[in-house]
Histidine kinase
Amino acid sequence: MDKDEEQRRSAPIAGRDIPAPRLARVILTAALLSYLAITTLNILAAELSGPTLAVGLLSLAAIFLIQLRHSQAGANRAPLHRRCTTLGIQALLTYLPIVVFRAEWGAMAGFLAGSLLLLLPSRVAWVMFGAVGLSMLLPPALDGRSALDSVYLCQSTLLTGLVVYGLSRLADLVSVLHETRDQLTRMAVTKERLRFARDLHDLLGYSLSAITLKSELIHRLVPTHPQRAMEEVHDVLAISRQSLADVRMVASGLLSMSLADELASAQSLLDAAGLEVRADIRLGEMSQQVDTVLAAVLREAVTNLLRHSKASRCEISAVREDGRVRLSVANDGADPTYRDPSTHIGSGSGLGNLMMRLNVVSGELTTTRGPDGSFLLLAEAPAAPSRHPPDTEDDVVSSQKPAA
């Protein structure tokens, strides 16, 4: 098993280890409620009067609701004036009760410190975060407590702020990760649909054109040359069986083609169509990927020639020189206004498919139409492309919608 296959098989397992966005939000809320409960217990232990206790509990509830708002995904993208307003309210609810509750209210300063990191630009946020932590040195000193208590409250405030900030950001990242995974899944499905449509177009367009052409030839030969007609029938059956095998390969994703085989098939088909064919074939070693791509180019070129031209002569050249393979198909009957009645006008996507295929193997495709009605299709690619060629197919997927 190669490394890529191992990664593909392990990906679903890794995906199951990612917590759900709802669970991440529950963990964040539980942590905030825990800090809130600690402060509530501290206030209750102070044995304050009823009205003072009620004001403290209401202030705690208000801070909790504000903190939930600040910890929401995208809260830092709200208008600046709105962020400053809610932070100002939270600061008042944090510092004013300290006059009454002193050090017992200190945990709420951690919420404010975390909110500053969540809502403000980094440079300003970290400075204010430190200032909030240092401000918590005062409440224990005002109560006449030791310096150790002041350091403890300062440290716990900063730690609470980091916990609030970290859990809020983590919940956001979990949500983004799940959304990204869903998008990647949809893109993978779209990419597979495009691959299937592209391969089906490249394969069946050629095969159906060949079957149609040979069937017309058989119809003409039956009255006068029955033996030749029988030979053509055998060819049609062979093409049909090969088309069925090709469709199965496309469905399984195991498509591979041979340029040499396609050259021989193209010559036979063009001869049957009554075209004068000249071929210059000097092929050498090439990678299977390049072989398949250039075979698909040849199929599409011959299919377009039969469908969209009135050519009488065709020249095919396939040469390997200096580590590159060059395939050219030229004919003398290009007619931009001509369309075979068996095809839907404007329905073809062959050249786009071929350009995408050649880009994957670092190749190039050019077409030239001459004023005399000639047409030249030229494809060139390295015989052995780089191990990791540029993947332009992802760009095509992201810009197209899946077929209905």
About this structure: Residues 19-182 form one domain. The chain has two domains: 19-182, 257-404. The longest strand covers residues 313-321.
